[in-house]
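Here is the promised in-class demo. Please do not try to memorize the tokens; focus on the logic of going from shape to residues.
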């Protein structure tokens, strides 16, 4: 009984186990089937992935599209459509060389049209690669020239598809401009316009930049504005903001307010730091730096030197390793009258760079030229020309240097009317100076002519001289020696003259002039055969363009035994600075004594004067190098003469200067002087004209 019970129990146990095993198998099969179904639903096929990739590409998300494409190739490496899309995406993302390598291994190979498209992509990316810092700073055009050659072959290939050739023409315009071949770029632009092609924004920006290099800002403005209309802000981080170019074009075209307003807004709108989502920290916004740098430069060019200097100094303190900012700071220091400080700043910038590029050499040349180191300036310009002879900036600098070291001609003429004791009822003075080109970087030969005359109550008087001289230059020094024989019959004495100017430091300078028959002797004395030796010396302290002070002493020994001694001190302070506008106020004090009285010319025993002065000047019109400015000066004070009552003295002058182009300018002005002589007020009106040709 017990045995049967055990057998029955065992049978029941086996039955239960069998049922459980059967159930487990069924469940397992069901789960496997469900899993396969889920897997089949969650894993798309190659067509679905490629569809997603093409959609991302159409939306401009090429990195995401490439990820989908790579997933297809990881599973189906021989998928032809995925291979083609992978090559296209790599080429568009800048991996044109890698794309070309993959295309070479395709089987079957690409069609001729597809190969042309791939080559066009590669050539287009060559233009972008050439934008970077050149591998060899002494040959900055190597990459650009290679890109131009490759693009030119595609543009000239009659077998290439029309759309590929058109794209190559547009890329060629960009490459030519980028390689400082502005004239060729504009020729390409003209051809495209003649064919009725509507340029895309990037090509218009390149054409506008070429226009600026050729000094055609009005045409550049139209191109920049159309580019911005087609493609308004925001711009991709790697793209140049065309509004910076437009602001510069506005400025060169004389639209200063629009220029500064635009670049000021760019500075205000651009954040200083860029932060990526999910990434700790931030990186500097390069476009903000570009906007700041351009804004500072334009405000500096408009005459606001102090604010430009302060902003650049702050930026250099924030980014001490930025060589470009250091160089811009040096040029601002030079503009403020600090050439030694500018040279030191350039030395600091040199330590931040491995190689001295053309821009650095141009800055060096400008600083050296400002202190009369003409040999050093020539060497720096030669180096810049070797490095980047096609650069518009280099061409402009070489043209300016040719003007500076070439012939120089100056002409001034004054006509006066009034009742002055020294000049009579009417007087005139003309001076002309012709200077030879620089000789051995140190010398110029001068030819001089001077003619002055006056209609005195006792008759006509003239002082006419002409002669030759030599002018010399050394770093921080200039000096001259000249001889001017007399050409009139009043005083037949040759006037020997000599003088120097020494820039002791960025703040202090000293100058002196001596003459054996000086022009400071009154014309009235000339009529009576009286001349004299004159000597004057002056020391000036100049903190910057804003503040200066000067003290001058002079001593004249007349041939009639009279010795005149005098002094003059003045202080000038900038009271207001605005774009192309400045107003200076100052104080001027002077005095003189004469050892003898009762001479036929005005020579009080002693006299004193003091006056408050002012100078207002601004730009009336500007277009590229053409410039038209005006200047108004005034002085009002008192004059004291021994044995006579003191009286009010006043003077005013209004003048204009017109620069037709770099190196040629004309000036004119009219002035009025009112001052007591021997207790009686006398007035004089003077019309002056001038001309300068040369630097």
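The designed amino acids, position by position:
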């Amino acid at each position: 009984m017990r045995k049967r019970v055990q057998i029955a129990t065992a049978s029941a146990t086996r039955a239960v186990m069998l049922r459980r095993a059967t159930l487990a198998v069924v469940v397992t099969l069901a789960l496997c089937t469900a899993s396969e179904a889920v897997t089949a639903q969650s894993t798309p096929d190659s067509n679905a992935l490629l569809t997603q990739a093409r959609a991302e590409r159409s939306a401009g998300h090429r990195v995401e599209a490439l990820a989908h494409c790579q997933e297809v190739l990881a599973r189906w490496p021989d998928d032809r459509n995925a291979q083609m899309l992978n090559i296209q995406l790599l080429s568009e993302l800048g991996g044109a060389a890698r794309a070309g390598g993959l295309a070479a291994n395709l089987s079957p190979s690409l069609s001729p049209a597809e190969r042309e498209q791939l080559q066009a992509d590669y050539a287009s990316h060559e233009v972008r690669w050439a934008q970077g810092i050149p591998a060899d700073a002494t040959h900055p055009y190597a990459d650009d020239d290679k890109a131009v050659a490759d693009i030119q072959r595609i543009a000239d290939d009659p077998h290439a598809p029309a759309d590929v050739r058109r794209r190559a023409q547009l890329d060629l315009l960009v490459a030519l401009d980028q390689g400082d071949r502005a004239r060729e770029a504009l020729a390409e632009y003209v051809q495209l316009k003649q064919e009725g092609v509507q340029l895309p924004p990037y090509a218009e920006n390149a054409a506008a930049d070429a226009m600026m290099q050729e000094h055609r800002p009005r045409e550049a403005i139209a191109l920049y504005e159309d580019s911005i209309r087609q493609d308004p802000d925001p711009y991709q981080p790697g793209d140049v903001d065309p509004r910076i170019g437009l602001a510069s074009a506005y400025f060169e075209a004389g639209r200063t307010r629009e220029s500064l307003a635009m670049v000021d807004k760019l500075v205000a709108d651009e954040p200083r730091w860029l932060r990526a989502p999910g990434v700790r920290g931030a990186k500097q916004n390069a476009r903000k730096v570009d906007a700041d740098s351009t804004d500072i430069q334009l405000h500096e060019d408009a005459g606001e030197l102090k604010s430009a200097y302060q902003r650049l100094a702050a930026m250099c303190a924030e980014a001490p390793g930025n060589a470009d900012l250091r160089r811009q700071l040096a040029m601002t220091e030079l503009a403020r009258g600090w050439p030694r400080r500018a040279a030191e700043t350039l030395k600091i910038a040199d330590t931040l760079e491995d190689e001295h590029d053309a821009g650095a050499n141009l800055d060096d040349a400008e600083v050296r030229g400002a202190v009369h180191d003409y040999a050093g300036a020539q060497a720096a310009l030669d180096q810049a020309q070797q490095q980047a002879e096609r650069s518009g900036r280099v061409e402009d600098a070489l043209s300016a240097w040719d003007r500076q070291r070439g012939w120089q001609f100056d002409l001034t003429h004054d006509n006066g009317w009034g009742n002055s004791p020294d000049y009579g009822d009417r007087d005139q003075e003309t001076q002309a100076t012709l200077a030879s080109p620089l000789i051995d970087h140190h010398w110029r030969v001068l030819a001089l002519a001077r003619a002055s005359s006056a209609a005195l109550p006792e008759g006509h008087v003239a002082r006419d001289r002409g002669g030759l001289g030599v002018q010399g230059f050394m770093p921080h020094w200039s000096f001259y020696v000249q001889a001017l024989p007399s050409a009139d019959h009043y005083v037949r004495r040759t006037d020997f003259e000599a003088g120097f100017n020494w820039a002791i430091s960025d703040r202090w300078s000293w100058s002196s002039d001596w003459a054996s028959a000086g022009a400071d002797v009154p014309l009235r004395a000339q009529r009576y055969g009286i001349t004299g030796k004159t000597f004057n010396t002056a020391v000036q302290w100049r903190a910057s363009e804003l503040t200066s002070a000067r003290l001058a002493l002079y001593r004249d020994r007349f041939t009639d035994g009279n010795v005149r001694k005098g002094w003059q001190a003045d202080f000038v302070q900038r009271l207001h600075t605005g774009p192309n506008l400045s107003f200076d106020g100052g104080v001027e004090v002077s005095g003189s004594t004469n050892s003898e009285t009762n001479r036929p010319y005005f020579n009080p025993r002693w006299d004193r004067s003091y006056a408050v002065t002012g100078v207002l000047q601004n730009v009336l019109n500007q277009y590229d190098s053409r410039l038209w400015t005006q200047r108004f000066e005034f002085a009002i004070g008192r004059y004291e003469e021994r044995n006579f009552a003191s009286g009010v003295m006043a003077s005013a002058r209004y003048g204009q200067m017109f620069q037709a182009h770099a190196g040629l300018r004309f000036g004119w002005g009219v002035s009025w002087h009112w001052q007591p002589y021997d207790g009686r007020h006398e007035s004089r009106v003077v019309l002056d004209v001038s001309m300068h040709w040369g630097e």
